[in-house]
Structures are given as structure tokens and as C-alpha cells.
């Protein structure tokens, strides 16, 4: 394809691609924010309620862990279909960009919780014991020791989650969720338009690279180990 032909093609499709990119960013950002707001506290609870933890509660830990494991074990494409009644109850429809945020958020929460739990496990136990010996409360230890010390790994976990949500949002396009995945399916696959399929793939790759690069830069900035 010559440059002029490609320029004409892009001029005819740029509004479609820009809209789809915005929809993808909207889905990833909104579901990511809600997923972090819920998943990070759950990860902290998982870590602190385990045996020997700051707030040891094996029963709570087992129940919460089982629920999170169930959430993580359901493939995203199945999750989208399974919670259609919930999506319709919350949004009024199960089709569209806003509707796709519901399964994206529910899929992100258990994923984030386990990543945060793993991040907190990397904090040396000696730091926690030192804080306890100085009379720090569990809340103070969580906010002043655990979370700050685990911050580089937490940022890395956030990056991994956002990259995963980009791929999930593309899958949401298979059921009319909008975004770049929807464009790839409807205009690329169904219409046998290889160019638009390739362009959407490239745009998704670029988006993932930007997220990963920003995440890596933030990790390098806050990691003083």
C-alpha cells in the first residue's frame, strides 16, 4: 500500500480509531481505579489476617482467600456472560463501554488483591517486629511500614494490572463492549479488513508499552533499595 493510499485510509478511519482508543482508556482507567480501591485493602487484609500476621484471623483469611481464588479462576470471557444480570441491574444494559466496566472491575479486584498480598510478603519481617517493639499499632505498621516498603512492588503490580485490563478490554469487544477490541472484531475480522486489524493491534501494543514504560519509571524513582 502506497503512502497516499494509507493516508486516505487513515483519514477515513481516524475518528473511528480515536473513539475506540478513548473507549479503551476509559474502560481501563475506571475499572483500574475501582479495582485498586477495593483490591488493595483486600490484599492488606489477606496479608495481615494470615497465621502470625498483625491481625491474625485464620477463618477470615480462609473465607476471603477462597472467594478471591474463585474470582481469579473464572476466565474473563465467561465472567462477562455470567454477570450479565448484575451488569444490567447496575448499568441498565450489558452492551457498551460503560457496561463492560462492571466485569472488568470484578475481574480486576481479586487479581489486584493477590498481587498486593505478594508485594507485602516481600517486606522483611524484621521491620514489622521493630515497629511492634516501639509500640506501633497495627494500622500504623500497615500505613507507615508495610505499604511504604512495598511501594515499588505495588507500583509494579498496578502496572501489571493495567496491562491485563487492556487485554481484557479487547476481549470485551467480542460482546459489544466497545474499544479497540470491538473495532478489530467488527471492522477487521467480520469485514476481512486486514489493515484495520493490524492497526488496532499496533495501537494496543503501543498502549501497553506506554503503561509499562511509565510503570517502570515510577518503580525506578521510588525504589531506593
Secondary-structure element string: HHHHHHHHHH
Could you describe the largest sheet, including whether it forms a barrel? Answer: none
Radius of gyration: 21 Å
The secondary structure category is: mainly alpha
Structurally, the number of domains stands at 1
CATH-defined superfamily: MetI-like
Please give the count of helices: 10
CATH topology: MetI-like fold
List keywords for this structure.
10 helices; transmembrane; MetI-like; 225 residues; 82% helix; MetI-like_sf; cell membrane; MetI-like fold; single chain; 0% strand
Structure description:
By secondary structure, this protein is mainly alpha-helical. The protein has a single domain (3-222), classed as MetI-like (MetI-like fold, Orthogonal Bundle). The chain is 82% helix and 0% strand. It has ten helices and no strands. Helix 2 (58-73) packs across helix 5 (97-121) and helix 5 (97-121) packs antiparallel against helix 8. It is elongated. The mean pLDDT is 85.
